[in-house]
Structures are given as C-alpha cells and as structure tokens.
C-alpha cells in the first residue's frame, strides 16, 4: 500500500472555492488576486486564507452551500481515485480549502477517498463568521503527511504527493514521489515529474508501478 496525498483546489479540481464563494457577495476578484499571490509564494498561505475568510463575513449559509455545490472534480479525477483505491492504496486529500466543497464534488461523481484533511468556515446565526478554522491554516502539509504516514504505518518513501501551489511545497519536498499538476514556477523545482491532466497522471502512476496499465 502507498499513501497518495492530493491537493484539491488547482489539482483534483480547477474550481477555486473561495472565488465561488466570493461571487455570492461581490468579492470574487479580490479572492482570485489573494489566491494567486499565495500560490506564487508572495504572501503566506495562512495570511491569504484569513484575508479571504474575512471577505466572506456575513455571507448566508444557504449561499455558501450553493457555492460548494458548484465545486467539481477535473475530468478523469474520479476514475483515477477509484483506480488507486481499487489497487489497495490509501487516498487522502490535503487541502487548505474547505471540507464541504470537497465532499460535494466527490458526492457528485459518486467517488470516495479515505480521508480529507482540510479547513472549514464556521457559521453562526446562519451566516459565515469571517473566521476560518482547521489544521491546515498555520499547519503545513509536510507535517500533516508525515503524521498521516506514521498513523498508517507507511514509510515516507512509499508516499506520493500531488499539488500545484506554494502551500503544497512542504509535502512535495518530503514525499517519496512528488508530482506537480501544472505547478506554479516556485513549485516546479520540487517536483519529480510534472503533468497537465489526470490521464497523464495515471500514466505516471503506471510508470512508477503504482497502478497497472491493464486495470483501466
């Protein structure tokens, strides 16, 4: 068994959750700008996430649920996740994004993962509070992956990390195999291999004997 740790926004999904949420209260452009700066390592991820959460203060929970419902997996992502799990691997999503959006996207495709390590936007009185909570605000994905591997008794050289942005760098640097999914310039040097589609990622997994080409 291997642990396959995927980032979500920008990797398994091309939906950017905070932008979808921001469309509900007119802050989408600000969200996109803050996100881009964080993914290029111009500002810290924690700072960017808190800034984006503050922009959502007062958003009705019903509108947030509408936004989460628009989150979608990339073409081929659900099939690849299912293949990995059928092969006996442990598939987890490590995201600074929000669990509800990840769950909605997976439910839409009828696929499951073993675990989701994420953050969430708290609600009070039916509206977002403007705060954000979770283990991947200040916490980094390298520590999360190392702890996760230890919990499941899997050696780090049998872990795979797939990501695209600066907040994925820590886990890409410690994983046994690091895959950049159309990675930002600051991320590319840490990647063992770079891909631009889920089909190509499947081919990489076959090349590293993580999947069998005959099981498609």
UniProtKB/TrEMBL annotation:
GO CC, alphabetical: cytoplasm
Pathway: Amino-acid biosynthesis; L-serine biosynthesis; L-serine from 3-phospho-D-glycerate: step 3/3
Active site as annotated: 7 (nucleophile), 9 (proton donor)
Keyword Metal-binding annotated: yes
InterPro entries: HAD-like_SerB, HAD-like_sf, HAD_sf, PSP
Cofactor: Mg(2+)
Gene Ontology BP, a term: L-serine biosynthetic process
EC numbers on record: 3.1.3.3
GO MF: L-phosphoserine phosphatase activity; magnesium ion binding
Keyword annotations from UniProtKB, A to Z: Amino-acid biosynthesis, Hydrolase, Magnesium, Metal-binding, Serine biosynthesis
PANTHER family given in the database record: PHOSPHOSERINE PHOSPHATASE
UniProt family annotation: Belongs to the HAD-like hydrolase superfamily. SerB family.
Name the UniProt record assigns to this protein: phosphoserine phosphatase
Organism: Haloferax marinum
């Amino acid at each position: 068994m291997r642990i396959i740790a995927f980032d979500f926004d920008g990797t398994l999904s091309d939906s950017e959750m905070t932008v979808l949420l921001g469309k509900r209260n007119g802050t989408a452009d600000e969200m996109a700008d803050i996100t881009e700066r964080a993914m290029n390592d111009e500002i810290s991820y924690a700072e960017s996430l808190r800034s984006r959460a503050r922009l959502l203060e007062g958003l009705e929970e019903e509108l947030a649920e509408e936004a989460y419902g628009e989150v979608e997996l990339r073409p081929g992502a659900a099939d690849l996740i299912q293949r990995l799990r059928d092969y006996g691997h442990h598939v987890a999503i490590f995201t600074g994004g929000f669990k509800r959006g990840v769950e909605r996207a997976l439910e839409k495709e009828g696929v499951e993962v073993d675990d989701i390590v994420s953050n969430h936007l708290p609600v009070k009185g039916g509206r977002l509070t403007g705060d954000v909570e979770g283990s991947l605000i200040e916490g980094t994905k390298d520590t999360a992956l190392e702890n996760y591997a230890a919990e499941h008794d899997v050696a780090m050289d049998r872990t795979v990390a797939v990501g695209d942005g600066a907040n994925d760098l820590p886990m890409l640097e410690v994983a046994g195999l690091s895959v950049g999914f159309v990675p930002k310039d600051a991320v590319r040097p840490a990647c063992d291999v770079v891909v631009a589609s889920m089909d190509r990622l499947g081919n990489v997994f076959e090349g590293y004997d993580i999947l069998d080409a005959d099981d498609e």
